[in-house]
Structure prediction request, 306 residues.
Amino acid sequence: MTNCLPIENQIQHNDFNVCSIIKRIDDSLSRDKLPTENECLNDVLYTAYCPTKKDGQKGQCVTNGDKISAGFIWLLTMLEALNEECSENEKDHYFEYAILWLSSKSNIINPGSYVSIDGIYNILEINNSFWYNQFRDKVNKKKKSMNFGDYHMCNLYKLLNELCTLITKYNQDRSNPEAYLEYANKCAETYKNLVTKASAVKNCDSYCDVLSTLKSEYDKFKEENKDPECQLPEFNGIESCKDLCKQKKQKEENDKGLGDGLVDGKVEIDVVPDDNQRNQEESRSGQGATNSVPGENGAQNTPGIT
Prediction:
């Protein structure tokens, strides 16, 4: 049974609270715990946000898509409850966390098949528009800047999840630093790997911004929990991430510059016909064949790029 302390009693440690909220909805939506159509949903966290039936009956979550979309609304609602104690910047980060969480659910919408992140949002619009409406504008603005592709979104959520595991383990038992140091090292390694992938991401700068947000959360946790007997690793590489983005932009600009003079992406070349082709063309024009050779009289007839 997860901790169900009132929000107002948990705000004093927002990082841990965010992680506990994510854990609660993850536990509720795990593959092993997804309730079937015939099971009672009264004790499920997200029941209140299930789609309302056309006949006005209380909402019911029948499909996995229903459950995940309702879970997303529940997550946003719970995170919004923290907003009164947060800066505008932190509020913005909460939407990032929720969107990353949603991106990790694409493989359980339909068991045995894959649903894209865009497909999940379509389910939200169709099945849960009433509840989604209050968050739509903020979510749409944020998900547009976080259009990294399903693969990179899931990897970013992996880092968020590992950070939450570290914070949770630390708060559960601080007497054994070696135990949570293992989780910290795992987080640092995941972060490093994600930095190296920056140049392959569509919205590279925004990708680095999300990584920077996660790094800031880790750095804050590290600073607040200094232990001389157990030095937590650094998250290195955010500058490298930005450098990779700059290099990517430079390459794109260079490629665009090389594209000047291209037709349909191809370089135009002045092709000089050979003797046989020249004779055939002159015969068709009635001029007869000639014995002229390219380059006679000092003429330079070499192919050139226009």
Observations:
- The CA atoms of residues 239 and 275 lie 59 Å apart.
- The radius of gyration is 29 Å.
